[in-house]
User: What shape does this take?
Amino acid sequence: MRRKTMRRWALNAAAIVAFAVTIFPVYWMVVTAFKPAKEIQAETPTFIPANPTLRHFATAMSAEGFWRFWANSLLVTAGAVVLALVVALLAAFAVARLRWRGRGAFVVVVFAAQMAPWEALLVPMFVIARDTELLDSLAMLTGVYFMITLPFTIVTLRGFLEAIPADLEEAALVDGCTRAAAFRRVVFPLLAPGLMATSLFGFITAWNEFAFVNVLIIKDQANRTLPVWLSSFRDVFGTDWGATMAAATLFALPALALFLFLQRRVGVGMTSGAVKG
Amino acid sequence: MSTRPTLWPYLLIAPAVAGGVFLLLYPLLKAALMSFQHFRMGEPIRGGAEFVGLDNYRELLAKEEFWQVLNRTAVWTAINVVLIVVLGTAVGLMLVRLGRRMRLLLMSALALAWATPVIAATTVFQWLFQSELGVVNWLLGTRGFTWFADPVAMFAVLVVLVVWQSVPFVALTLYAGLTTIPAELYESARIDGGTGWQVFSRITFPILRPLFALITSLEIIWVVKCFPQIWVLSQGGPDGATTTLPVYAFKVARVLHRYDLGSAAAMVTVLLLAVALVANLRRMLRQEGAR
Amino acid sequence: MKHRLLALAAVFALAGCGSAAEKGPSSAAPAKLTVWIMDGSATKELLAGFEKEYEAAHAGVDLDIQIQAWDGIGERVTAALASTDAPDVIEVGNTQVAQYSASGGVLDLTGKVADLQGQDWLPGLAEPGRVDGRQYGIPWYAANRVVVYNKDLWAAAGLDEPPRTREEWIEVTRKLNKGGDQGIYLTGQTWYALAGFVWDEGGDLAVREASGKWRGALDTPQALAGMAFYKELQALGKGPKDADEANPPQHEVFAQGKVAQIIAVPGIAARVLEVEPDMKDKIGYFTIPGKTADKPGAVFTGGSDLIIPAASKHHEEAYQVVKALAGEAFQTRLAQTMQFVPNRTSLAKVLSGDEGTAAMAAGAANGRATPNTPNWAAVEATGVIKQYMTAVLTGGDPLTEARKASQVITETLNSGS
Assistant: This one.
C-alpha cells in the first residue's frame, strides 16, 4: 500500500512539473502584458504583477489598423476552414465509406501533399495571382490557406468517419432512408465533435500564416492580416516587451478561446480523429 | 453495398482534386520549372526566363554549405522527433493514470501550448531567453548569457520551442488512442506479473503501432519543414548554426533573390522527405489495398 | 446531394475569382496615388499636412500615404515592382535603392535631375540611386549618428566638455561607468557604428578589386582595429552583446536615466521624451569623436531615396509627388520636424540653431556610404556583420571570425543578380 501511495505521489509530482513547464510560456506572456514598464525592466522579475496595468493592451489595440486586420484575419481564416471542412468531408466520405479504383493512390497523394514546400511556392503563387488579377484580394489568400489545411483535414476527418460504425448508417438505410438522409441524421451528429476538432487545426494554421500575405497583398494595405501586423508591431515599437506581449496575447486569444470552447464540448474526442491511421 | 458505385466517389473527391490541381500542383510545377531556369530578381519584374538545364542543381550540390545544411537538417530532425515522440508518449501515458482533476489541468495546459499561434510563441520565447531581463537567465542564475549568440544555445532554444509546441499534439492524440485499449488487457498483464515497461512493450505499443507510425511520420514532416520558428528567432544564425533546409532555401531565394537556386533547394527537400517516408507511404498503400 | 455539390462548386468558384471585378482602369478618373513611406521617416501629422496641401493644390489627385514596416520590406518592394499595378511612389533605404534600380522595374528619372535641382544632392543618397549613369532613386533625406548624452550624469561626474578624440572619449566614458550607471549603452550589433570606426582606421566593409570582383574586408588590420575599439567601448556599459539597438529599444533604456551615452540619430530625443517627459533639458549631443581632434569620426550616412515603379499607372502624377516631397518647402519641414539632413547641401542652413542637428551636421562632413553595389542589401539581410560582432564580443577570436564573415560577404556580393 505504501508503495502505491508513493507512486501516486511521484506521478502527481511529475504531472505538476509537466503542467508548469507547459503552461509557463503562455503564463509569462500574459503576465508580462499586464506589468508596467518599470516592473518589466526590473532586475528581479515578479511572478505576479504588483501593479497590473492595461496600458500595453491599450497601446496594442489603438495601433493603426488593429481591428481591421483582426477582421481580415478572421474572415480569411474562417473562410478557409469552412471551405476545407466541406471539401474534405466529401473526400473523406468517399475514402472511408465507398470502394473505388484509385482510392489507395488518392489517400497516399493526400498524405504526401502535406510535404508541399509552401515557402518555395511564394513566387509562383505571386505570379499566378498577378496574372489572374487576384493580387491584393482576400479571396486569393483564402484559397491558399484552404489548400494548406486541406490535406490534414481530409486525413483527420477520414479517421473520425471510420471510427463511426458503418452498421449505424446501414441500419438507417434499411429503415428506408436515402444515403444522404442517413448521413445527415445518423453520421453527422456523431461526427460533429470531430469536425470541430479538425476545424481547430485549420484555424491555427491559417491564423498564423504570414509569408503569403507579404507577397499577395501589396498595394491594398488594408487587406493585410494580423500576423503581419504582429511582426510589424515589433518593428514599430522596437521591442517594447509589454506592448509586444499584449499584442501576442491578443493574437493568441481567438485560437485559445476557440480551443477552450471546443474542449468543453468535445472533451476527449478532441484528437481521436487521428487515431485511425 | 452501394448501388451506383462508379461515379459517386469521383464526384465526391472532385472538389478536393480541383483545389489540389489549381492551388498546389500548378504552382508546384511552376516552382519546379523555375529550378531549371535563370530566375532572379529581374525575371519576375521583366518577365521571361532563360532555361539553364541542371545548372542550379549543379551549383547547389557543389556548395559545401549545402551539405552542411543537409547534415544539420538530419540532426535537427532526429533530435526533435525523438524528443517529441518520447516526451509525448510519456505525457500521454501519464494522462491515462492521473486523477480526473489533475488530468483536466494538464490537458488544459497542453491545449493552451498547442493552440498558441507560432508567431506569438516565438515572440514569447525571445522574451523568455532575453539576455539581460529574460526570466530564464534569472532562473538559471546566468544573467547576461546570450542564448541567441551561441550556436549550441540557439539550437537548444529552438529545440525547446519546437518540442514544447509539438508534444501536446502527440500526448493528446496518444491519450485518445490509449483510452480505446480495453482495460481487461492491462488487468491480465498485471496479474501475469508484467512490469510497467513490459506492459508497454507487449500490449500498448503493438496495439497503437499504426498510431505511432502516423504520428512519427507527421512529426518528421513537420519538423523538417519547420520554418517560421527558426526564421523569426535566429534567421538561421548564429553563424549558420540553425540553418536547416527550408531556412536555407528561403534565405537563398528571398535574401539573395536567387529564386532559381531556392526552388532547387526546395525540390531537393521534398525529394529527400519522400525518400525518408517511402516505407511509410508504401505501407499506407498496401493497407489501403488490403481493405 | 446534387444541389449541395452545386453550392459547393459555387463557393469554390468564389474563392477562385473573388474581387477581380473591383479593379478597373482608373487613368481617366481622379488619380489615386499610393505612396509608401517607411516607418519612422516622418510623423503622422507631417504626412497628413502634406497630403492635405497637396490634394488642395492638385485637383483630381487623391493621395493614399501608407506607412510601411521595415520587416519584410525587401520582398514587398520586389513584389510591388513585379506587379501590374504598383504603388506610385516608394521610399527605399539608401543602402537598398541600388538593387531595385538594377532590376529594371524602376522608372528612369535621369531627365528630371535638373528640374529637381540635383546639382547639389547629398552624394551619399544620389550615388546609390544611380546605376550605369542613369538616375533612378531621387534623394529624400539623410541622417547620421551622434553621441546623445545625459547631462545630469555628466554633471554628476564633474564633466562638461565633450571629448574631441577617441582617447578622451574612452576616458570620459570610463569615468561615467560607475555604480548603477552605464558609461555608454552600446548594443553588440550596432554595425553602422562599427563601420564608422573601421573607416576611421582606413579600412572598409568590402572593397572592389581591380578585377571588378568584390571582397569582404573585415579581416584587414584596419577593420580589426576598428572592431577592437568597438569592443573596448562596448565594455563600458551593459548593452546586450547579441542584440541590436532595437532589442530592447535604446531610447527606452536611455529614458530610465541610468545611461550616460548612446549612439543614435538626434531625432531619437522625441522618442525618449515620449517615454519620460522629465528628460527634457537633460539631453545633450556631440559629434562622434575621431582619432584626432581635427577630424570628426567617420559616420555612416543613412537615409532614403524615392523611386517610381515602372509598373505605376500614373508616372507623371507620381513624378509631381516626388518633386513636392523632394522640394525645398517639404524638405525644410521634414528636416526641422525629424531632425534630418535635407537632400541638398544648400538646404543645410535650415538646421542651424539646434544642438542635435548641429552635432550631426559636423559629423556629416565625414559621412560615408556602404559599398556601392546592388548586392549590398543582401549582405545586410543576411545579418553577417551583426553575427560577426557578437562572436567577437562574446570571446571569439577576431581574426578567425573576421575571415569567416568576410568570406560570406565576398560570396554574397559576387553572386549575380
